[in-house]
Write a structure and sequence with these properties.
Blueprint lengths: L2 E2 L2 E2 L1 H9 L3 E8 L15 H7 L1 H13 L1 H7 L2 E8 L2 H11 L3 H5 L14 E2 L14 H16 L3 E5 L3 H10 L5 E4 L11 E2 L1 H9 L2
Helix pairs in contact: 2-5, 7-8
Length: about 200
């Protein structure tokens, strides 16, 4: 099915990211390992999105900057969101969920609404390999998420995240990379660096 509870199923995430009809922008937010072990904790959506608004605002700025390109290529910008914190994904989906109607629209009617981030995300908890009962399953799911993230055309991720960084390098997209701390200025101006510079800065490549 297209909908996996609040979010999207892995199959439809993969189908969407592979489709030439969409321009996927990838966001990977590392909130901390402790967020993987909490369950059913109430949270305020506005507060949690405010904490990470630099990621979402930067995505919107990238979309606004490339509106002409999207019209010329007849593509719809979407945002694939990965995070260890289920609350971030749930809050973003409730506000900007990528709809089934948009996915099925062959004339790209949703292209005209560039004020929506069209969030594509799974709303299920993720497993840390150190805490999971089934470590092999946790590893497989993590590798698959990395693969999905590498399919995105543009990448934004937490500056302290090795998980997100690996997928960005594996994608070999020749576009600038954006990395943020939490609660930074809600903008991506002057925050990007080229792939080659990032490789040297972070891993000595």
């Amino acid at each position: 099915s297209f909908i996996n509870q609040l979010g999207h199923s892995p199959r439809h995430i993969l189908q969407t990211l592979l489709s030439s009809r969409f321009f996927p922008i990838g966001i990977q937010i590392r909130a901390g390992d402790q967020t993987m072990t909490r369950t059913n904790v109430p949270f305020d959506e506005t507060t949690i999105l405010k904490k990470f608004e630099n990621f979402f605002n930067c995505s919107q700025q990238i979309i606004n900057t490339n509106i002409k390109l999207f019209r010329e290529t007849n593509q719809v910008p979407i945002v694939f969101l990965l995070s260890d914190d289920i609350q971030i994904r749930q809050a973003a989906l409730k506000r900007w969920k990528f709809s089934l109607e948009c996915f099925q629209s062959f004339d790209n009617k949703c292209q005209s609404n560039n004020n929506s981030l069209n969030i594509l995300a799974n709303s299920n908890p993720v497993f840390h390999i150190s805490y999971a009962n089934d470590r092999i399953l946790a590893l497989r799911l993590g590798i698959f998420d990395n693969f999905l993230f590498s399919l995105c055309e543009q990448h934004l991720f937490s500056i302290e995240s090795g998980f997100g960084r690996f997928a960005v390098f594996a994608s070999l997209k020749l576009r600038n990379i954006y990395s943020f701390f939490h609660n930074e200025q809600p903008s991506c101006q002057n925050q990007s660096i080229p792939l080659a510079t990032a490789g040297y800065h972070w891993s000595g490549i």
